[in-house]
Design a protein that fits this description.
Blueprint lengths: L4 H21 L11 H16 L14 E4 L1 H4 L3 E14 L2 E11 L5 E11 L4 E5 L3
Parallel strand pairs: 1-5
Antiparallel strand pairs: 2-3, 3-4, 4-5
């Protein structure tokens, strides 16, 4: 065991320099690539078509490529009767925000129409999330 402070200090300094070099060479958090609008719109249609066809939201992870989907009405058991995508959407950071008109029947059988927005990402994973109202 080395107890001489004159020997411990250089070892500590070398260890510190090595650690600083390793940490300095690592990249920070990666930024998502800009949204691919065509892929985003296709993914949104695929997601809404699956809901309308009566599929479970968890089935979206089995798509090729997989889609991570979130919609609280769908998760609560509502049925999508009709949908209309309004426009081409607009890029927001690494996502595409798309307005949609939905006609849904909730678990109690009540039918409603509402305009909602979906936030669709294409990198690093495809995501289709209903924007909070």
């Amino acid at each position: 065991m080395i107890t001489n402070p004159a020997v411990r200090l250089p070892r500590f300094a070398c260890s510190f320099v090595l650690l600083a070099t390793i940490l300095g060479c690592t990249q920070g958090p990666q930024k998502a690539a800009p949204v691919d609008p065509a892929l985003a719109m296709t993914s949104l249609r695929t997601t809404l078509d699956a809901w309308k066809a009566g599929k479970k939201i968890d089935s979206m992870s089995e798509q090729t490529p997989p889609i991570v989907a979130q919609d609280f009405d769908w998760m609560a058991g509502a049925t999508l009767l009709e949908y209309e995508i309004k426009g081409e959407g607009r890029a927001e950071d690494a996502n595409l925000r798309v307005d949609c008109q939905l006609k849904i029947r909730d678990a109690q059988g009540q039918t409603t129409s509402k305009t909602v927005a979906y936030i669709v990402g294409t990198d690093p994973k495809i995501t289709v999330f209903r924007a909070l109202e």
